[in-house]
């Protein structure tokens, strides 16, 4: 009897995304996913919020990355984004205790930084 091969699911629950490591193409760790931002109307994930910087999570900032920018790498068991650590220094971000409203003005800043085609 031939055993069926199961492929990994094409979907993932949000609780499994939170805490997943994020790397740049060179394999350097950029941090981990803190949470997702979901469009209420379409249900699409707009942003994966990267926790980066600080020490042991203390003082780390949050960086909303366009979801389409993340590519899952099974070998790394994490997401890869086409960014270097230096690029994050100018990226839109906020502290953990100052979550933005993700209104039009805030979203415009993210689009201007990463490009409209990613959002």
From TrEMBL:
Pfam families: PRC. InterPro entries: PRC-brl_dom (IPR027275), PRC_barrel-like_sf (IPR011033). Residues 15-87 form the PRC-barrel domain. Coiled coil: none annotated. This is PRC-barrel domain-containing protein. It comes from Scleromatobacter humisilvae. The lineage of its organism: Bacteria, Pseudomonadati, Pseudomonadota, Betaproteobacteria, Burkholderiales.
